[in-house]
Amino acid sequence: MLPSSKYVEPIERTLDSKFKFRCHKDISCFNKCCKLTNILLTPYDILRLKKRLGISSGEFLEKFTYTHIDEKSSHPYAVLKMIDDEGKCPFVTPDGCSIYEDRPTNCRYYPVGQGLMVKQSEKGQVNEGFYFFIREPNCLGFQEDKEWTIETWRIDQGVDLYDEMNREWKEIQLRRDNPGQPKLDEKKQSLMYMASYDLDKFRRFVSESKFLDILDIDKEEVEKIKTDEIAMMKFGFKYLKYILILEETLKVKEEYRKQTKDARNL
C-alpha cells in the first residue's frame, strides 16, 4: 500500500518493536482498509496472483492494474485497480480476501510499513531496511489485545519469502533513485515494465528476438528460464541491471561484438 504520509508514524522501528493488532471478521472496520487505497505490486506479487487466477501475466495486468509512472525516478509501476463507486479491491468479499494465501506483499505487511535506504559503511554503500507503523483512523485493529513484534508479525504473515523474491528488484529501484540517474525514455520504461511484471511477454521477447543469439548466456540458465518462472523473474532482474546500466550482468558473444555496439537496444 502507498499510505498517506499523515498516517505514517515518523518513527523508525526495528524487528523488536512491539505493537498490538488484530484484524478479524467481527471488527467493525473489517474490509475498510481494502478500499480507496493504492497497492503497488511487485514482480513476485504478479507471479503469484496470475498463477492463482490461472491467467497470463498480460491478462492480469490488463484486467486488474493500471500503470503509475513515478515523477522522480520515471519508473513504471503496476498498481492494483480498485473497482465500483466505493473504490473496493476486486478480490475482497464480505468474508474477507478471496486471494488471501497469495495476497500482495504490501497487504501482508499492513499495518506495518517497510522502507529501504542506502547508507555508507566501511565497505561502501549498503542497503538497510527499516519499518514503521501505519495508523489510519478507520483501522481499529490497534485497539485489540493481540501483541506482536515486527519480527513475529513478519513470520505470521509469511513475508520472508516475498522479501527474498523482491529484494533484488527493490534494490534496482533504490539504485535508480540515486541523484544523477537519467530519466528513462518510453522504450526503457516499456522494457522495465515488461521485465518486471509481464513475465509471459518477457519470455517471448527472450526466445523470439535475437536476444539468445547475441548474448553469452549459460545453456543451463537458458533451459531453466524457459520452464521455471522464478528463474525467469530473476533473469529479468539481471536484464534490468544491464539495460539500466547499473551492472554489466550480460555480455555480447565474441562473434557479435564488432556487429553490435550495445545489446541494450534489442
Characterization of this structure:
- The chain is α+β, with helices and mostly antiparallel strands and 266 residues long.
- It has a domain at 186-265.
- Helices cover 38% and strands 15% of the residues.
- The protein has helices at 43-53, 57-64, 105-109, 150-157, 159-176, 186-197, 199-208, 211-214, 219-227, 229-243; strands at residues 18-20, 65-69, 76-80, 92-93, 96-97, 112-121, 124-133, 147-149.
- The strands form four sheets. It has a two-stranded antiparallel sheet.
- It is globular.
- The two termini are 34 Å apart.
- The model has no long low-confidence stretch (mean pLDDT 88).
Topology of this protein?
Elements: E1 18-20, H1 43-53, H2 57-64, E2 65-69, E3 76-80, E4 92-93, E5 96-97, H3 105-109, E6 112-121, E7 124-133, E8 147-149, H4 150-157, H5 159-176, H6 186-197, H7 199-208, H8 211-214, H9 219-227, H10 229-243
Antiparallel strand pairs: 1-8, 2-3, 4-5, 6-7
Helix pairs in contact: 1-2, 5-10, 6-10, 9-10
